[in-house]
């Protein structure tokens, strides 16, 4: 369990770091829209809360994202190892949440 949670938590830091580097230095002239925006928000949902481009806001957003990934990792681990009902309910809730979000931004 510990390795799974650490892995998910690290992924919550690594994905935003990669997205930030790509967005800042590689495609900074391109406006995020469509599938790219959905992918960006899917991998880094706490980026929506960044209102300023300071280092503190970026670190706070990555910590929040790490906690978000930690919860997802726990739900997956618990659902696979302890209770399939938790896994199924988590998947349905996640799909409904993101589905409604995608419809809202379209």
| Biggest sheet descriptor | none
Range of strand content: under 5%
Span between N and C termini? 37 Å
Helix content: over 70%
**Overall strand count:** 0
Instruction: Give me the secondary-structure category.
Output: mainly alpha
Name the average pLDDT.
Answer: 80
Which series of helices and strands comes N to C?
HHHH
The rounded Rg comes to: 15 Å
- Uncertain runs: none
Shape: globular
Tally of helical runs: 4
Summarize the SSE layout with pairings.
Elements: H1 2-26, H2 35-43, H3 55-81, H4 84-105
Describe the structure.
With 106 residues, the protein is mostly helical. It is built from 4 helices and no strands. Helix 1 packs antiparallel against helix 3.
In short:
The chain is mainly alpha-helical and 106 residues long.
Which labels suit this protein?
106 residues, mainly alpha, 4 helices
């Amino acid at each position: 369990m510990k390795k799974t949670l650490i892995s998910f938590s690290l992924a919550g830091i690594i994905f935003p770091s990669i997205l930030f580097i790509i967005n800042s230095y590689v495609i900074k002239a391109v406006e995020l829209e469509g599938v790219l925006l959905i992918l960006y928000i899917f991998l880094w949902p706490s980026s929506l809360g960044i209102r300023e481009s300071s280092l503190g806001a970026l670190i706070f957003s990555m910590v929040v994202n790490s906690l978000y990934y930690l919860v997802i990792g726990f739900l997956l681990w618990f659902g696979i190892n302890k209770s399939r009902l938790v896994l199924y309910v988590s998947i349905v809730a996640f799909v409904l949440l993101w589905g409604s979000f995608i419809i809202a931004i379209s």
